[in-house]
Specification:
This protein is of the alpha/beta class. The chain has helices at about 15-30, 45-50, 50-80, 90-100, 120-125, 150-155; strands spanning about 5-10, 35-40, 85-90, 105-110, 140-145.
Length: about 160
């Protein structure tokens, strides 16, 4: 049996921080690898013209900076060294690509939103019966909103 991995999607939402904290502690407790993926939307080069390359480089640099902060959070929270990846496209496509490419991924971590607009698109999709994030089935863990780090770590134990 190969190395067990947890996949965490990091976006701009405030709740994704909870998924990283949970993932770091869960990875530590289960001796797994935490993979944090930052998804960026593809930019239309035809609309950007000559400045397009610079904008794309800037977006990628911001994504890497965000990933660095999430990786530091995982390290500071639980001592876990997370793998980080940037994916250009839609979040669902990123999840599918990672799950299909890496048989070690056994768990997808998502954080529920506490907003009045719903739980968030990925959590809502995961809760639908037809939701399939890859060719293989993986466990989906949803971290609830409204918890502090201590409560999240306790949940992950």
């Amino acid at each position: 049996m190969g190395e067990r991995k947890l996949l965490c999607i990091a976006d701009e939402s405030p709740e994704c921080r909870n998924a990283v904290v949970f993932g770091a502690e869960r990875a530590k407790r289960t001796n797994a690898t935490l993979i944090i993926v930052r998804v960026i939307r593809p930019l239309d080069m035809s609309l950007l013209g000559a400045i397009g390359g610079g904008i794309i480089d800037e977006v990628r640099a911001e994504a890497m900076e965000d990933l660095g902060q999430f990786a530091a959070l995982a390290k500071n929270t639980s001592g876990v060294i997370a793998e980080t990846l940037v994916y250009e496209g839609a979040a669902h496509d990123a999840i599918r690509a990672q799950i299909d490419a890496d048989e070690g991924i056994k768990t997808l971590l998502l954080a529920a939103s506490g907003s009045r607009n719903g739980l968030g698109p990925l959590v809502s999709s995961a809760l639908r019966e037809s939701a399939v994030f890859g060719k293989r089935k993986v466990a989906i863990m949803i971290v609830p909103d409204g918890l502090d780090d201590t409560q999240i770590i306790e949940l992950a134990s």
